[in-house]
Amino acid sequence: MTESDASQRKSMQMMNRLLMLLGFVSATAFGSGIVVALIDEAEVPPEQVEFFEKQVRPVLIERCFQCHSSDAEKVEGGLLVESRKALLAGGESGPAIVPGASDKSLLIQSIRYESREMPPKGKLRPEEIASLEKWVEMGAPWPADASTSEHVVMTADLPRDWDALRQNHWAFRPLAEESPPNVKDLTWPESDIDRFILSRLEVAGLKPAQRADRRVLVRRAYFDLTGLPPTPEEVHAFESDSQPDAFAKLVDRLLDSPHYGERWGRHWLDVARYSDGFGGFLDNQAQPHAWRYRDWVIAALNRDLPFNEFVRLQIAGDLIDGDNAAVATGFFALGPTYISDGGDPEATAQARSETLDDRVDTLSRGILGLTVSCARCHDHKFDPIPQLDYYSLAGIFQNTNVIEKPIALPLVIQQYDEAQHVIREREKLLEQRETELKKDETKLLSEQPQELATLRSGLQKLKDAAPPKPDSVHAIADGGTADMHLAIRGNLLRPGSVAPRRFLRIVAGADPIRFTSGSGRLELAEAVVSSQNPLTARVFVNRVWMHHFGKGLVRTPGNFGALGEKPTHPELLDWLTSRFINQGWSIKELHRDIMNSAAYGMSSRYDEQNFKADGDNRLLWRMSPRRLNIEAWRDALLAVSGDLDLQLGGLPVDDINSARRTIYLQVSRNGDHFQADEFMRLFDFPAMRATVSERLPNTVPQQYLFMMNNGYMLRRAELFAARLGKESQTNEQRIERAYRLLFSRFPTVDEQQIGLEFLKEQKATENIVASDDRSRMERYLQVLLSSNEFMYIE
Amino acid sequence: MNNWISPGVSRREMLTRCGAGFGTLGLAGIMAEAGATTTPLAPKMTHFAPKAKRVIQLFMPGGPSQVDTFDYKPDLATYEGQRPESVDRKSLRNTKNGLMKSPYGFRQYGQCGKWVSDIFPHVGEMVDEICFIHSMHTDIPEHAGAIMMTNVGHLQPNRPSMGSWLVYGLGTENQNLPGFVAMSPRAQPRGQAANWGNSFLPGTYNGCYVNIGQMHPERALNDLTNQLPRIEQREQVDLLARLNSLHLKRQEKDQNLEASIQAMEMAFRMQFAVPDVFDVSRETKATLELYGDSEYAKGCLLARRLVERGVRMVQVSLSIDGYDIAWDTGHENIVDGHAKLAQACDQGIAALLKDLRQRGMLEDTLVIWGGEFGRAPTSEGQKGRDHDHYGYTVWMAGGGVKPGYSYGSTCNFGLTAVENRVHVHDLHATILHLMGLDHEKLTYQYSGRDYRLTDVFGQVVQEIIA
C-alpha cells in the first residue's frame, strides 16, 4: 500500500466518522438508509486484503448473497454473510464461522456438503471451497475499510502501482517522440507519413500499390471531404491540371467548402450518438432543438475550431461561455435520459444508473477510447479502471441536469416570461370567477356568461399578442456539488464508499486533483484535453485516419484498452498525434497531412501476392475499397438526378423525398419514430442509443428490395432520365453522360454495348408492358443507380 | 449431432434448394467466378445437439394472472379477505387488501389431471403436451422494464432481443424469408421495435414485424412488389448482375461486393416467397376451422406457416382493443378483462399445438406462453389485482420439454415463487439450451466486452427437459 493510499483511506474514515457525528446519512440522492457505523477491526495486511478481495468476497457475493444478504428476497436461516460480524453472529443454527478453525465452522461444513448442502443449487468448485477454508484458517480477516457500515461495503479499492500500470500498456504511455524511419525506396514517399508506412511494407517484403488514376483520386477526395460526388466538369478540370500541386490545391479547396463540415460533422454526430429524441417508452422525450447542436458541430468544423477547444466546449460549454457555447453541451444533453414508468424504486434507480452510464460511456469510449462502463458493477476486468473511478466520473454527471436553455436575447426572454406571467394570472382569475359564479345562485343566470365571455376573450387576446416561445437549446447545467457513492454491483440502492470526483487514475496518477467546483465538469474538461492525457488526441487522430482509409491505425476506435487492438503503426500514430497537437489541434491540417501522402493516393487494385501476405491490408499496401455510408449514397443519388438542395443547416426534415442532404433528415434514437428512420436503418445507419465507434456495412436483401421496388428509387431514375434527356441527344451520349455523372469515368466499349442493347429491347416488349409505363431509359438508369460501383469508392 | 443445420451446405446447394430459376446469366456462375462466401443468415453449427429447431413465443404482455389461469390455489377461497403475513409484500401500487379468490371455476384436464381455469377450455384440452413453470420471478413489477427483461434480458431497451440472438447463433433455414418474425394484432407490445430489435448485433438479425391486423404480404416486408412482369424485372436484375460482376472483376476479392450480388438475388426471390407464406387460402377447411377466425389465431396459423418454411423464431403477441399491454386489464376488475383476453387467444393457441402435433412438428418446435409477470392473489380495489413479479406462470410445449408436467411452485396463495425458482435469465438459458446453444458461449463483443442474452446470469433448468 502506498503512503498516499493509506493516508487517503484514513482521511476517508475520518470523513465517515464526521458524517455520522453530524447526523448525515448520505450526500447523494440515493443514499437513504445507510447507517454509517464503524466497527473496530484490526488493520488487515495488504496481502490478506488482496486474497480476500480476489478469492473470498467474489464467492460470497456470487454464490451466497442471493439468500444470505440484506438484499435477499428472503434471508434463509437468518444468516447474513455480508460482514465478519454477521458471520460470527451467525443464523438460526449458530455462528457460521470459528476464525482459525475451518473444520469447526458451519460455513465450511455446509459448502463441503457435510452438515448441510450449501449452496443448494450446486456445490462450489473445489478451488472456491479451498479459498474459503484458507480464509477461515487465516482468522477470517475482513478488511476494515470495506466494512465500515452495517450495510456492508462490498467493493474495496485495491492499492495499485499506477505509474507501473501506465507504462504497461501502449495507450496509457505518454506520446513517444518519433521520427520518420529510413526506407530503401526513396522514390515512393511523398511525405513523412509514407516513410512510416513504407518501412513496414519493406520489412514484410510488400510493395505499395501504384498511384490511383486521377479520376479515382478526385472522386475519393470529394467523397472523403464533402460527402458529394464531383461533377464531370470538376473531374475534367482536375484531370487536366498538370501542376505538381494540383491535388494539394484540390484538397485545400474542398477543405474550404462549407460541405466539409456536413461530412465530418456527421462523423462526429455518430460519436455523439446524435438523434432528434424519441428513444421509445423509457426515454421517449422529443428533442426539438437538437439541430442547433448539429449546426454548431458543422460550423465548428468548418471554421477549424481546434479539437481541444471543440471537446472542452462540449463537456463544459455552459460553464465556459454560457451565452454562446451551452449549445455544445448537447453532446451530453442529447443522450438518453431514462425514466421508470411506474415509480418502482428499483426501476427508478436502474433508470438513473443507466442514464449516468450513457454519459460516462459517451465520454470514455467517444473521446478517451476507454470502456470505463465496464467498471460500473466491478473493477474493470482487463484495464486498470477500478469501479471507484467509474463513480468518480459518474458523480460529475450525477450533479449535472439536462435542461432546455433559451438562447434568445435577455430582453426577448424577459418579455416572453412576463407575458406568460400575465396570462397565468388571468387564467387563475377566470377560474376563480367561474367557481364563484357557479356557487352564487343569487345572480341571474344570464349575467354569468356575459362576464365570463369578457374575461375569456380578454385572455385570448393576451395569448394572441404574447411573443412566441424563445429559441432554446438542449444543454446541461450544474445541479449539485456532492460526490456520489460507489454502487455495489452497479445497484444505486446499495451505496458503497464515497467516490471523489476526479479524473481516471490511470491517466492522472494515484491521487488526482479533486473536482470541487460545481459539478466538476469544467475541471473534467480540462483534464480530458490536458497535455498529461495522451488518449484524447490519439483517439481522435485515429478516427480521422479511419475515415480516410476505411480502418483506423487502431482498428478498435472506441477501445484503446487491453481488449482493443494494438496500433498497426504505433510510431506513426504517435508521430501524427504529436504533430496534430503541435499544429494547434487543427483538424484541417491533419487532413492535409494525411491526404497529401502517397499512401492516401494509392490505388485500391488487388494484388495477389500482397493479398496472400496481408489480406486484411493492415500494412496498407493499397487503399481499401469502401462502401459509401447512407448519407453520401443518398446525397449522391440526389446530386446525379439533379435534385440536390445544398442549403446549409436549419430545421430537420421528416421526409426522405426532400431534396435536402441526408444529415438533415430527422432520426430517432429508437429508429422507429420518423419516416426516415426505417430507410436509414436499412442502410446501416446505427442505433443512436450509444456512441458509435464505427459503422459496419451490412449487405442484406432488403436493401435490394428497396432499390428494385421503392418509389424513391423509381423517382430518382425518372428525374435522372429527364436530366439526361435535356443534356444529351442520343442514347450513346446519354449512357456516356450517365457514367461520367455516376462513376466519374467514361463507359467501356462493352458497357456502352450492354447499355444500348438494353435500351433497344424497348420495342420488343412494349406491348406487354401495360402495367408500367416507365421507359427503358428509366429502368436502365435505375439499375445503374443500384450498382455496386455507385455505392463504393475505390 | 443432428444434421439439420449442416454447416457444410455448399453455396450452390443452398441456392438450388432455395429454388427460383436464374436468369440468362445465372447467379451460380457469377458467384463461382467471385469465390465462396456464405450469408450471415446461413444455418450455423449448434454448440450441442438441439432438442428444438424453432421457437414460437406466444407473448402475453400486461401480466396475466397466474391464480386465474394455470396456477390453481384453492386456499384463496378459504382465506378470502384475510392478509396472511406471507402475502404482505410490497406491490407496485402498495395495495393492502386481503386475498381474493378467483372469479372463475377450475377443472382438471388430461392424463396429468392439471387444474385449469374455465377461461382456457381449449388450452385445457392440451395440458398433456404442456410443461408448466409455476415458479417464475422477475426483477421489477413495471410493465416496460419487465417486458424488456422478458424479450431482451435487460430492463432497458438497449440489448438484442432473444430472437435476434437465436438467428445470430443459429442462422435460419430459409434464405428467402427473414429469420425472425414478430407479429401482433394492431397494437405492438410496449417497447415496440425493441422487443424484436437487433440492438448492437448486425442489422441482418433484426426481427421483421408484421401486423396481423393487416395481413397483406406487402405489409410484412417493405418494397415487396414490383410493377413489372417477372420476366421484365428479371432483365433488370440480370443487367445489374452483369454490371456488378464486371465491376467485381476489376476490384477482385472483395467480400462486400460478392455479398451484395448474392443479396440482390435473394431479394428477387423474396418477392415471390413472402406472399406465398401469407396465402392461407390453400389451407384445408379443417385447418381453418381448427384455428377459428380470431385475429390472434390468424397469427398462430401464420406462425406455423413461417416455421414450417424454416423461419427460426416467431413471436406472436396478444393485444385487443389496440392496447399495448393487453393483460393489464386486471387492476380494477379481473373478471371481464381476463375472460375476454383468454377468449381472444384460447382457441388459436390450442389449434397451433394440435396442428404442430398433427404435422409431426411439435417435437422440435418450442412453443412458449407467458407474460412479463403475473398478478397478486390479493385484491386491488374491489375486484382487481396488482402486478406480481415475485411469482408467476409460464408454460412451454414441444421442443424437448417434459409433456404433461408442472415444475416449481408458488406459495399456497400464489404470490411468491418458493420451490425451484426460475428467473427470466434462467428461462432464457433454458430456451437457448433447448435450441442447442450454450448461453454462456453465445456472445457478441461490443463496446469492449462480450455480451450475452443472459448477461452474467442464468442457469439451465435441467429438470424440465425431457
Task: Write up this protein.
The complex is a heterodimer of chains A (794) and B (466). In chain A, strand 3 (484-487) and strand 4 form a beta hairpin. Chain A has 794 residues and is mainly α. Chain A is built from 34 helices and six strands. Mean pLDDT of chain A is 87; it is low at 1-42, 145-154 and 763-772. Chain A has helices spanning 3-22, 46-68, 84-89, 106-111, 126-137, 162-168, 192-204, 214-226, 232-239, 246-256, 259-271, 290-302, 307-320, 322-325, 330-333, 345-368, 387-398, 410-439, 447-465, 505-508, 521-529, 535-549, 570-582, 587-595, 608-613, 630-640, 675-682, 701-709, 711-727, 731-743, 749-760, 762-765, 776-785, 788-791, and strands at 400-406, 472-478, 484-487, 495-499, 626-627, 792-793. Among the domains of chain A are: 3-163, no CATH class; 274-405 and 476-532, no CATH class; 408-468; 708-793. Chain B is α/β, with parallel strands linked by helices and 466 residues long. Chain B has a single domain (19-464), classed as 3-Layer(aba) Sandwich (Alkaline Phosphatase, subunit A). Chain B contains 13 helices and 17 strands. Chain B has helices spanning 11-17, 27-34, 75-78, 121-124, 143-152, 162-170, 217-220, 230-251, 255-278, 285-291, 295-308, 334-358, 424-434; strands spanning 54-59, 106-109, 114-117, 130-137, 180-184, 208-211, 313-317, 365-370, 374-375, 387-388, 392-397, 405-407, 409-410, 417-419, 422-423, 444-446, 449-451. In chain B, helix 8 (230-251) packs antiparallel against helix 9 (255-278) and helix 11 runs parallel beside helix 12 (334-358). The relative contact order of chain B is 0.21. Mean pLDDT of chain B is 87; it is low at 1-37. Classes of the chains: A mainly alpha (794), B alpha/beta (466).
